[in-house]
Amino acid sequence: MTNQELKEKLYSTIKSKAEINDLSEKLVDKYNEREKEFENKASQLNASTTKVRSQLISERKSHCKNQRELEAKYTAEIKLLKSNIKTLKREATLA
Question: Which segments does the entry list as coiled coil (predicted)?
C-alpha cells in the first residue's frame, strides 16, 4: 500500500469517525429531548391523578353525608308511621 493510499484510508476513517460522533450526538440530544417529554407527561399524569383522587374523596364524603341524612330522615318517617299504625290499631280495637 502506498503512502497516498494510507493517507486516503486514514482520512476516510477519520471522516467516518466524525460522522459517527455527529450521529451519536444527535441521538443523545434526541434521547434527552424525549426523556424531558416523558418527564413532563409523567408529571402531568401525576397531577391529574392527584386531582381525580381528591375529587373522589370529596364526592365520597358528600355521598356519605347525604346517605346519613337520608337514613336519619327515613328512620324518623318509619318511626312516625309505626306510631301511626299503633294508634290506628288502638282506635280500631276501641271502635
Answer: 21-91
CA distances in angstroms from 71 to 2, 35, 61, 79, listed in the order given: 101, 53, 15, 12
Domain count across the chain? 1
Q: Which domain holds residue 31?
A: 1-66
Helix locations, 1-95, DSSP H: 3-94
- The answer to whether residue 14 sits within a structural domain is yes
The three grid cell numbers given for residue 73, joined into one nine-digit string: 330522615
- Averages of pLDDT over runs of 10 residues in the chain (95 residues) are 90 94 98 98 98 98 96 96 95 85
Q: How far is the C-alpha of 41 from the C-alpha of 9, rounded, in Å?
A: 47
* Contact partners, residue 1, CB within 8 Å, separation at least 6: 9
Does residue 47 sit within a domain? Answer: yes
pTM of the model: 0.56
